């Protein structure tokens, strides 16, 4: 297997996001996507965020996944610093349990998009899949792995359906 041309940058605002974002990292591993993971905050470490954003291309990254909760400016700040595609994952928690993060992440002004996914674990998994889909445009091996990933999902549902039909025949 040839090494993928692009890596996926995963960045999250706090170590308290890690529990949810582990499902993103696990999915990247399952899809054999090379990746780097950082904990950096738009509010608490703003200089480190802009340094990281400035070094993305020279470090071989092709897509950014940014996860944050509450005021959740991380994805937007990253998008402001790079022309690479940025995928935002709103984190649950806080007084509004992710509804705040969802609105902060999704409501980007025109010209600086953040592809905003579902709050929490589904968004975290889908961020890895979407990153692979973007990279698959330039990498046929990734495209093949995505097809296998989809086929596995389909098979899982069909297996459950057939188990259920054995229990409750039509
Ligand atoms: C955000 O604030 C982080 O992404 C996290 O989801 C939330 C709470 O952070 P901690 O106070 O747990 O570090 O910046």
* Helical coverage, percent range: 40-55%
Text of the CATH class: Alpha Beta
Q: Calculate Rg over CA atoms.
A: 17 Å
Order of helices and strands: EHEHEHEHEHH
- Integer count of domains: 1
Give the overall form: globular
Under CATH, the topology can be stated as Rossmann fold
**CATH structural architecture:** 3-Layer(aba) Sandwich
Low-pLDDT ranges: none
Q: Average pLDDT, to the nearest integer? A: 97
Helical stretch tally? 6
Largest sheet: 5 strands, parallel
- Taken as a percent bin, the fraction of beta residues is 15-25%
List the ions, cofactors and other small molecules found in this model. 5-O-phosphono-beta-D-ribofuranose
Widest beta sheet: strand line-up: 2-1-3-4-5
Question: What does it look like?
Answer:
- The protein is an alpha/beta fold and 170 residues long.
- The protein has six helices and five strands.
- The protein has one domain (7-167): Rossmann fold, CATH 3.40.50.
- The longest helix is centred in the last third of the chain and has 28 residues, at 140-167.
What are the key terms here?
Rossmann fold; binds 5-O-phosphono-beta-D-ribofuranose; alpha/beta; about 170 residues
